[in-house]
Write a structure and sequence with these properties.
Layout lengths: L1 H25 L1 H6 L5 H19 L4 H14 L6 H19 L9 E7 L2 E17 L5 E7 L5 E6 L8 E7 L2 E10 L2 E12 L4 H4 L6 E7 L11 E2 L3 E4 L3 E4 L5 E11 L9 E3 L8 H34 L1
Parallel strand pairs: 10-13
Antiparallel strand pairs: 1-2, 2-3, 2-12, 4-5, 5-6, 6-7, 7-8, 7-9, 10-12, 11-12
Bound molecules: 2-acetamido-2-deoxy-beta-D-glucopyranose (7 copies).
């Protein structure tokens, strides 16, 4: 029983030591700002904060600075916990440096405003890709991606005057168009129809693979579908960072990413956001956040108590 308790205490101590090291390494600013109340604690915190700031500001010579600061740490026994914190910070700066050079290929996000006469009825922002499935010259199914340019023009805008009427527009670009129709049902609006036409002649890379000169792609939302595409409450904007795909005919898909849109605008401005991820699973995310917070608070408390005990012990020895 006594051994088990000791083991538990030792484990808590190790975890807390690691955490205090991480906390001191992560937040050096409040430590430097707080006036030194006790001389023993101030010297410990400044010694740990100093190598962190130097490693962040200069990523190049951080290996030399850590090696020089690591030497006094090994000579002084109480500040041995500072050593893992500096070693964990150093690789994070080195991994950040190469990630800035290769820019991830992001499809251009368009920002289209739909208005008829003086009435703005929809705002549509998204990165749209038509993933075309086609038969090549050997009758083999192939795929070809057509990215809708962000500067595609809005054609044929129709702003329904009442809730019963649909809202539609066409995004026109050199290789074709993507037309969308939105409908309202009770207090919800959704994407009801997609009609796309692709001009293969305008896409030499596609034209050389197929005998077809053009492609007509359509999508219609199922009338009895429980999960309608791009559905949101009237008066709110639909926001979806996660990519979505609508199945068009003949194996083609319409890929949407970084969607922020709203149909049936009353004052021409986007309403409060309705997120496709968080609003569809309302129970799971708050639970995870609450659980994480509770765990964090408990660990902070343990770390605080252990640090205080250690500091008290340090005082006694001095
Ligand atoms: C979209 O365009 C409107 C003006 O047409 C502008 O006010 C708004 O800031 C733009 N939004 C984004 C995310 O580009
Ligand atoms: C649109 O607004 C202008 C003035 O800003 C006005 O002259 C014009 O008649 C309006 N058109 C419609 C269809 O309401
Ligand atoms: C491809 O299929 C069509 C019928 O779908 C046929 O008429 C044509 O001969 C086929 N071509 C080849 C190269 O197999
Ligand atoms: C409209 O919503 C009702 C329930 O809210 C549903 O029964 C009906 O099928 C919907 N109609 C369409 C066309 O989506
Ligand atoms: C299709 O693209 C070709 C090449 O850009 C162009 O000459 C032709 O007019 C286009 N067809 C239509 C119907 O727009
Ligand atoms: C589209 O292709 C069909 C044959 O597949 C052709 O008859 C039609 O004229 C084409 N339309 C345009 C606008 O090029
Ligand atoms: C879809 O496939 C069918 C049969 O393969 C073909 O008749 C039709 O033209 C295709 N539609 C489009 C838009 O390519």
């Amino acid at each position: 029983m006594a051994i088990a308790r000791q083991c538990l205490l030792v484990t808590i101590f190790i975890v807390a030591t690691l955490f205090t090291g991480a906390i001191q390494g992560a937040e050096p600013i409040p430590d430097s700002k707080t006036p030194p109340t006790t001389p023993s604690t101030s010297t410990v915190t400044t010694s740990t904060a100093a190598p962190d700031t130097t490693t962040i500001s200069t990523p190049g010579p951080d290996t030399t600075t850590t090696s020089t600061t690591a030497k006094p740490d090994t000579t002084t026994p109480p500040s041995t916990t500072a050593a893992p914190s500096t070693t964990t910070v150093a690789p994070s700066t080195t991994t950040l440096a190469p990630s800035t050079t290769p820019a991830p290929p992001q499809p251009a996000v368009g920002n289209w405003t739909i208005h008829q006469d003086n009435h703005t009825c929809a705002i549509f922002r998204a990165a749209i890709t038509v993933k075309l499935a086609f038969d090549d010259k050997a009758n083999k199914t192939q795929h070809f991606d057509i990215k809708v340019p962000y500067n595609a023009t809005v054609g044929d805008p129709k702003c329904g005057q009442s809730a019963n009427e649909s809202i539609s527009f066409s995004l026109e670009f050199p290789a074709g168009h993507v037309a969308m129709t939105f409908k309202q049902n009770h207090s919800q609006y959704y994407l009801q129809e997609v009609h796309s036409w692709i001009n293969a002649t305008a896409l030499p890379d596609l034209a050389k693979q197929t005998n077809a000169t053009n492609f007509t792609l359509t999508y219609t939302a199922g009338a009895a579908a429980s999960n309608l595409p791009l559905e949101a409450s009237v008066g709110r904007s639909y926001v979806c960072g996660a990519p979505a795909a609508l199945a068009l005919n003949n194996g083609s898909t319409l890929a949407l990413a970084s969607v922020t849109y709203q149909a049936y605008l009353s004052d021409g401005k986007l309403g409060p956001e309705q997120n496709c991820v968080t609003d569809s699973s309302p129970d799971m995310i708050p639970m995870l956040v609450a659980g994480g917070l509770i765990l964090f608070v408990v660990l902070i408390l343990v770390a605080y108590i252990v640090t205080r005990q250690r500091q008290a012990r340090g005082y006694h020895s001095m």
